[in-house]
Amino acid sequence: MSMVEAPTFPDYSVCLKDFGAIGDGEFMCTEAFAKAIDALDAKGGGHLVVPAGIWFTGPIVLKSNIDLHLEKGAVILFSPDVDLYPLVETVFEGLDTRRCQSPISGRNLVNVAITGDGAIDGNGHYWRPLKKEKVTEKQWKEATANGGVYLRPTYWFPYPESLKGHQISNMNVPQGLTTDEEWHSVRHFLRPVMVSLIECKNVWLQGVIFQNSPAWNLHPLMCENVLIEDVQVRNPSYSQNGDGLDLESCKNALIVNSTFDVGDDGICLKSGKDADGRRRARVCENVVVDGCTVFKGHGGFVVGSEMSGGVRNVSVSNCQFLGTDVGLRFKSARGRGGVVENIWITNISMMNIPTEPVTFNLYYGGKSAVEVLESGETVPAKVEPKPVDETTPCFRNIHVKNLVCAGARRALHFNGIPEMPIDGIVLENLDITSTLGAEFAYSKNITLKNVKIRNSQGEPIKANYCEDINIED
Fold this sequence. Notes:
With 473 residues, the chain is mainly beta. It contains 6 helices and 39 strands. It has a 32-stranded parallel beta sheet that branches.
């Protein structure tokens, strides 16, 4: 892995206010942002300084050699007006598709940064659907008072177009749309990721609060040399598809000293989904995660489920997961393909984990781990193997060392497939307090070395259809 360092920028700055912007939370600053970025671009780049204030705006399109720098007290607040965000060709949930333009975006850039001490808010609650069981009665009444439509009495959508898009979608991506008219008929459903950086080199996100995104929060896609440090990523716990960071098909990345408190996966590595991901054939590789904290979220550190291009050469260390649904979450399904390998995880602390500190699920179907547990789903008594081909997912050579978990429902859960069992997992120096013990299915060459499982119910370890589970010390 080559050195990943922050990009450098020309020693030239402009202030957003000098281009006609007013930071009162109401004046529309879209044109001012565009003029300031163009002025920097004409000088070869530099720093766009956003001073204290609330800067209300439509989408911002970044350019090469520009640092969007937020001073203390600066808030960039994006307009909830869907008409400001045109449909663009992009990738979501690992598939080539169309979405509304992201509030912040950049494509094919070199040297691009968002830095400082301010905050960026996507006004996502105007875009997202809502499930009544996930919010308080007051929150439900406040959201639904704005109008909208219902799929059922407890599932609300802010626009009729949002509901229509949901009804024709598979995992949040509409199916069968061919004309511009058909796409525009579900435009309000096509919630954008808040920060979309595609095929960029030398990306730096530092210090800023990113919050309340319409869908995923941060989405570097097919980027190289990515440095993310000291950021806070926040979404309400009830926000659907409210991932913190989705690093997809990127090469050489550092994610350090950052916090995530979101409504879906916290720190997630992806590489495309099914045929689209295999056709792209871009591995997510050479990634270091260190010193990060994840609070709420479906997973702390996650690989998948879109991993058809493969994920390899990853280090995760010195992290804490506090109340996250799952700690270390590996997920995929038949039909994905892709190889996940060479992952080293050390010095992890967890507490109050509703499901498992470590889970592998090769039958992922779109439900969170908590939802799977609540539905009562279990591993089938026996699964018939299928032929191994390019659509067969593979997880192998993954090491977890020095992990402490105080409070989980189940100690470990490995849920593999018979034609390609989970292979070569080493668990060393684990100390887990849980209700249930560890469960393994269709796994092989699993080593448990100095693993302490203090479960209050049932057996400490169950294994079905496994080979070579080695227990030492």
